């Protein structure tokens, strides 16, 4: 079955760069159409999409955060990495990675458990 | 940027029908999907491509999308359906989530 798990620091300081890793199993990012995305959710607030990478290394970013985000994949390790620069307390949120089953699907059918990242000095 | 608007809250009695709307410009021209999120848990996909149910999602969940509004309908609502619900669509190469609706089963 498909599983995803996020890992990374739980606490970062303002202006630092956040690096999160999504380690997955049950599918391959070399399979045509498959993608892995990142979504975050500040405490008590709505979901916000951040970025997505496809099997062919095509990458999409949230227009409002594009300048701060980089998404990469390591197919051999079954991992996707998200970096976000210049962290601010408003970036405090639970960060999720999720599986997209096909290029035209435009939805996420499996989600990780999420990891809470707090931005504070 | 594209926006999806949902009512903040919907209340429903057990066994009754709950309808949650999601409004966006020409949303009916795009595919909409819906996620259920219970407190402390990750979102779960309950409807995709407007009206399709993933395996394991009860038949009481249904969806529609036309004009500027997508609707998630929960028929015969049960206490276990109490959760936050988010719509989501794709616009201009970006995923967009709705503002979220808290469904309370009274």
Question: Could you name the key traits of this structure?
Answer:
heterodimer; A: 121 residues; mainly beta; 7-stranded mixed β-sheet; 11 strands; 0% helix; B: 106 residues; 6-stranded mixed β-sheet; 3-stranded antiparallel β-sheet; 47% strand
Task: Detail the topology: elements first, then pairings.
The complex is a heterodimer of chains A (121) and B (106).
Chain A: E1 3-7, E2 11-12, E3 18-25, E4 35-41, E5 48-54, E6 59-61, E7 69-74, E8 79-84, E9 93-100, E10 110-111, E11 115-119
Parallel strand pairs in A: 2-11
Antiparallel strand pairs in A: 1-3, 3-8, 4-5, 4-9, 5-6, 7-8, 9-10, 9-11
Chain B: E1 9-12, E2 18-23, E3 32-37, E4 44-47, E5 61-66, E6 69-74, E7 83-91, E8 94-97, E9 101-105
Parallel strand pairs in B: 1-9
Antiparallel strand pairs in B: 2-6, 3-4, 3-7, 5-6, 7-8, 7-9
Proportion of residues in extended strands of chain B: over 45%
How many strand units of chain A? 11
Please outline the major beta sheet of chain A. Answer: 7 strands, mixed
* Helical stretch tally of chain A: 0
Average pLDDT for all residues of chain B: 97
> Uncertain runs of chain A with pLDDT below 50, 5 residues or more?
none
């Amino acid at each position: 079955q498909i599983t995803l798990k996020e890992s990374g620091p739980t606490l970062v300081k303002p202006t630092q760069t956040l690096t999160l890793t999504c380690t997955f199993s049950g599918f391959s990012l070399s399979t045509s159409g498959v993608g892995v995305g990142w979504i975050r959710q500040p405490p008590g607030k709505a979901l916000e999409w951040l970025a997505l990478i496809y099997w062919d290394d095509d990458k999409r970013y949230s227009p409002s955060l594009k300048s701060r985000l980089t998404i990469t994949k390591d197919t051999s390790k079954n991992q996707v990495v998200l970096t976000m620069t210049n962290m601010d307390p408003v970036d405090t949120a639970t960060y999720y990675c999720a599986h997209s089953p096909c290029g035209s699907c435009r939805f996420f059918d499996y989600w990780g458990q999420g990891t809470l990242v707090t931005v504070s000095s | 940027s594209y926006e999806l608007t949902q009512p903040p809250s919907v209340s429903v009695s057990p066994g009754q029908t709950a309808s949650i709307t999601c409004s966006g410009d020409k949303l009916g021209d795009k595919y909409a999907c819906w996620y259920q999120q219970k407190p402390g848990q990750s979102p779960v996909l309950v409807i995709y491509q407007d009206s399709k149910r993933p395996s394991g999602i009860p038949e009481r969940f249904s969806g529609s999308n036309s004009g500027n509004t997508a609707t998630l309908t929960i028929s015969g609502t049960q206490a276990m359906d109490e959760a936050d619900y988010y719509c989501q669509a794709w616009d201009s190469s970006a995923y967009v989530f709705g503002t979220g609706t808290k469904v309370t089963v009274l």
